[in-house]
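Q: Here's a chain of 116 amino acids. Please give me its 3D structure as tokens.
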Amino acid sequence: MRYGKYSGRGNFFSLPNEVFLLGLSAGELAVYSFLKRCENRKTHQCWPSIKTIGQAVGMSENTVRKYIRRLEERDLITTEPTRQAEISYAVFCLKKKKAPSFEAHALYQRKFSETK
């Protein structure tokens, strides 16, 4: 399925390496990645519907909402509710996150190696 409206320039988008050090679940990472793909690079905002996000990442709308709440709790995004006609949308603003400290990275690596 194509999402031309959100494709930006070219067939790629940038995802910071640090996002893999935050301990995000697969679902959180999928939703965050899609929001990053849709993001306006100047304003850091995007406004895909919950349904569009769900179709793109293969999740139900309720599951997408759950992961959006978790990303908000982790302070990676903020949401601002909007309303157009009969459909509810949200404006998602992706925040710049400082890279985790060396200690946090070491703790994550230790946790990751214990689960293997």
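Q: Can you summarize the key feature?
A: The helical segments are 26-38, 50-57, 61-73, 102-114.
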